[in-house]
Structures are given as C-alpha cells and as structure tokens.
Amino acid sequence: MRAAAEVAAPRLRPFPITTGALAGGVAALLFWTLFFGGGSRDLSIAWLGTAAVLAATAAVAAALLGALPWPELDRAGLAFLVFAGLFVLWNGASISWSLDPDRSWAYTNRGLVYLAFAGLGLFAGTVVPRAPRAVASALAVLLAGVLGWALLGKVVPSLFPDGGRLARLRSPVGYWNALALLADMAVALGLWLAARREYRNAVRIGGVILLYAAVVSILLAYSRAGVLVAIAVVAVWLALQPERLESLVACGLAAGAGGAIAGWAVTRPGVAHDAQRYSTRVHDGAIFGVVFVVGAAIVVFAAASLLRADAESPLTPKQRSEYVRISLLGVAVLAALLFVGSTIKAGGPGGWLDARAHEFTSQASVSEKPSRVTSFSSNHRWAWWKESWSSFLDHPLDGTGAGSFVLVHRPRRSTSLDVTTEPHNVPLQFLGETGIVGFLLFGGAAVAAALGLRATLRRLDDDDRPAALALALGALAYLLWSIVDFDWDFVAVTGPVFFVVGVLLSVGRPAQPAAARRSLWAVGSVLVALAAALSLLSPWFSEKRLEASLTDYQRGKLSASLAAVHEAHSYDPLALEPLLVWAGIEGSAGNIPEAKRLYRKAVRLKPKDAEAWFEFGEFELKVDCFPLRAYQYLNRSYTLDPFGPTSRKGGPLDEARRLVNKEAGKTGKAPCG
C-alpha cells in the first residue's frame, strides 16, 4: 500500500530557480564580500550579512518546496553544522553575562552570517557541476581582482587617498594582514592553475601571474605571517600533489620576479614610506606600475618559453624526479645558510634563541616599515595572549562574553600605544571570551571541518581533487592565520572560507532528491531569516539615528535630537553611545535628573567600561557640580583604563581631586566653574 502510494504520488514541478541563478547569486555575493566587506567594523556586515542570510534562506526554502535537492552530508559535515550552530548560539547566550553586551551581539550576528555562507556553500557544492573547479576558478578570478586593485592603488594614488599616511598595502580589505591572507589563498589557487599539465598554456601562465601578484602583495603588505603561511601552503601542496616540478618552476618564477619587484619598490618613498606628499606618490607610483608590468611580462615570457620547451622535448619521469630533488636540496641549503648566518651573528645557537625569544616577548612596537618583515617581535601579541589566558582563568566556564576582550585588555595594558580590541589569536580569544564551553564548540567545528575536508579529498576523482586541494589549502591558511591575528572580524576573509568549507563538505556526494513540499517549514525558515535580518540591521539603524540626533543637536533642534537619540537607543538597547549622547543632551538642556538616570543606566549596562564612568564623572564635575562623586567616577574610569582620557595631566580627574581636597569636597556640592 505504502509503495503504491509513493509511486502514485504526483511529481512536483520545479520552481524557476536554476543552478545558474544560484551560482550567479553566490558569485555576486562573494564579489561584494571581497571588495566591499567594510573591514572589521561591526556595522560593516549589516546589509552584506542580511543579503547572505536571505540568500541562504532562499536556498533552504527552495529545497523545502522541492525546487532544489538537499545536500548530502556525512557525519563530519553534520557535526560541523551542529558545532558551529551551537557556537553561535553560545555567543548569543553570552550577551546575558558579557562585559560588553553589544559586542557580544555583534559577534552573534557575525556567526549567523558565516553560517549563511557555509549553507550557501553546501548547496553550491551539491548543485553546481564540477563544483571544486568552478568555485576555485571563480575565486581565482576574484582574488586576482582584489590583488590587482590593491596594487593599482599604488600606481594611481587617488584610488587610495589614505595610502600616503600608511603605506602598507591593505585596500580593498582595509587591513594589511587580511589582504596578505587573501594573497596566501591566491598562492594555493595559482599553484593549482599553473601546475596542471592538462590545462591550456594560457591558463597555466595565468596561474603563474596570480602567484606573482600574490608575492608582491604579501611583501608590500609587510606581512611576516603572510610569508610564513605562503611557504606552508607551498610545502603542503608539494607534499600532496604529483606535479612537483611544475609547481616549483611556477614558484621560482613568481617568487624571483615578485621578490625583485617588491625589493625595488621598498626603496621608493612614494610606494613604501608613510606620510609622503601626493606628488611623490604619483611619481613613484607611475614608475612602480611600469616596473610591475615589465616584471609580469618577463614572467609570462619565461613561463611560455618553458612550456614550449616542455612540449617540444618532454622530460622523462626520472629527469623530472631528479630536477625536483635538486631544487628542494637547493632550497634547503639556502635556508640552512641563512639560519647559520643569523646564528653566528647572534653569538651561537643559545644566543640566537635567547635573542629571538626576548624579541618576541618584548612589548616594543614594530615600525610600519619594510624592515618589519625580518623582525621576530610579536608586536604586543605576547602580552595580549597572556591577558586573554588570565581572563580565561578568571572565568573558565563561560568567559567574559563574546567580543569583550577590549574591556579585559584596557586595565591590563602598560602603555598608551598598546591599543587593541582582540588578542590577535582567535582560539585563545574564544577561550577567554566564551570559556571552555565556547572553545570546545569552536574546536569541535574546526576538527569536524578538517575531517570532512580530508574525506572529500579522498572521495573526489583526479580531475576535481587538485582544485579541491587548492580550496582546502585556503582554509588551512585561514586556520594558521587565526593563531596570530583576528581574521574572524573580517567578513572579507571569513565569509569566503566558510563558503569553501561548505562546498567541500557536500561536493562529490549524491544529492538527496527534492522531497515533498513542506510549505509550513519554508514559511518558518523565512520567519527565522527575517528575525536574523532584524538582528543584523538594528545596530545599523541605531547608528544612523544617532548620527541624525547629533546633526539636529548641532543645528539647535533639541526636540528632534532627543527623539532621534531615543530611537537610536530603542534600536540597539545594548549600545553605550546612544545612552551617553542622550544623557549629554538632557544635561545640556538642564534636565539634570533625567541625565543622571541615563548615566546610571549606562554604567549599569557596562560597569567595566571606562568611557561610561568618565562621561558620568565629567557630568558630575561640570554640570551637576559634585566634585566628590566626580572624583569617584573618574577614578573608577582611571582604574578601568590607566591610559584613557583620565590619565591626562591637569584633566578632569586632577581637577576633581583638587576640588575634593578643598572645603567644597567635604560638603560634596560646589559652585560650577
């Protein structure tokens, strides 16, 4: 009976959602992410994240309505989704105990966006034909565009006006190390394109050019980790892929030409030095553009010549093996000579290790110059890691709340130059901020993803496996970078990585056929997506209403300003700034009781935030004329941030102390002014 009913069931007519539409939408989203991700600002993910969530929901709803097949996942893939989802929920739960609840909300939103990218990857891996090759090719083109745009900013300074202040290459991502991470991903994709003997020569030469641009970008970003991770990516590729000779030749051409171009470029003030005049940047940038193009032409000519020679008289397997052995031996000898030279200069192995350890743990800031590439200094990271570990020991189970490290760091920092919002170590950050529970959830997701990617590489055939390996090496580069930086805050790198992981977890498996329509579930998924969109957009609307409030206040429109700042607070009740602005406006309008109520609400919202206590203390000093309370609040602010505004000599804290030490301080009240 049951079988007969199943046979007799009417076939579902597919909705007009095609594989091409899904692929085009994902490509557009990745383009938006890579070029206009907005850096690490929490509000940068508002509209981009909403688009990602809605796109993923559309795919889920289409599957629920029978228009798309469901991705087929193994245990590792399912475990990744479960652990990642629980980690995001734990981030959201941490809002209730967080030192910095609005940042915890922002981190929850980021997690939702990254889950959406992973979901899109799962569907893309299921329905896009030859998904590893298609995704790897699309990412190679996009990353070539990103690196090309970054380098073009050196040639045409008007594209990157801030380049005269800080010369390190960072556009369009906004952060040099994030750009270097994308360049490391490009290294893996360049190796895949350049080393495959069955590809056309034009494609292979394009792969070498991508490698060349990646090398120049990493070096002009002055990224030490970028160099080390690129070496690790190349080493793993050589260990796992049989086309070792082609890979070594491509790396040799790209590294030789790219290193020479970058080495010359750092001698040009308009390209490599900060605070340069615009005319200098224009002059040196034009020369750099010519030299870069000449270098690319040399790489193209050399690669084409080698390919032509190989086609005319191909090497035997024995010759190829011998050339690989000689090349690797040469690299090993060169590395050994460099190590021996630096060891002798340091006075022996013991002296070298002691010097490097001291340099790494010192709190000296590393200059933003090309010489930083050879520095072993952690650039304050060692101190930040210890602070995060100490925070974990104080709150081992639940942490201080997702994204709250900035409030852990401020009372512990030892210099005003030591400014950060994250400890620049993602696993350690999650350990301190979300406790052992959050850390195990995050670690479980990472381990499950690694196991799933390994299974995928074993499952795919010889045509798709190299492309999948190149994509997996991009994820490996991200994992290595997470130990020394805060790339979780950059949707431009984390979003594509989650997408790639989703693709690799689902690719190569038979898709589940479209099931019977589940309209109620589809409606439910849309409602969940709308709730996520509201969560993503509310802080953005709050920021816009806050800006409108300040504009109205400057124009003397007090009632409109108060209405706007009230809306800003209602959109984001966890944010501190709307409360402080609101209290300041009420105070300037003479509504002292309301202003004090709002300041009290602010310090209750974030009792560990020095800014809230500073603003309250200034109000008590200058408006309410209570030096004793002002001193207490300002001193609290100083305790929470010894290098904040209360540290200024002759500032509000010193003034409050002076008044307290007078007769007025004993009675509490004093005349203002």
Essential attributes:
mainly alpha; Serine Threonine Protein Phosphatase 5, Tetratricopeptide repeat; 27 helices
Brief summary:
The chain has 673 residues and is mainly alpha-helical.
For the record, the count of structural domains works out to 2
**SSE arrangement, N to C:** HHHHHHHHHHHHHHHHHHHHHHHHHHH
Derived from helix and strand composition plus strand pairing, the structural class reads mainly alpha
Poorly predicted parts: 1-17
Helix percentage range: over 70%
Q: Name the average pLDDT.
A: 88
Query: Got a strand count?
Result: 0
Written account of the structure:
The chain is mainly α and 673 residues long. The chain has 2 domains: 19-314 and 368-506, no CATH class; 576-667, Serine Threonine Protein Phosphatase 5, Tetratricopeptide repeat (Alpha Horseshoe), CATH 1.25.40.10. It is 71% helix and 0% strand. It has helices at residues 2-8, 19-36, 46-64, 75-93, 101-127, 131-155, 176-195, 201-220, 224-240, 244-265, 269-272, 278-312, 317-345, 349-361, 381-394, 405-409, 426-459, 465-481, 491-506, 519-554, 558-571, 577-588, 592-605, 610-622, 627-640, 652-660, 663-667.
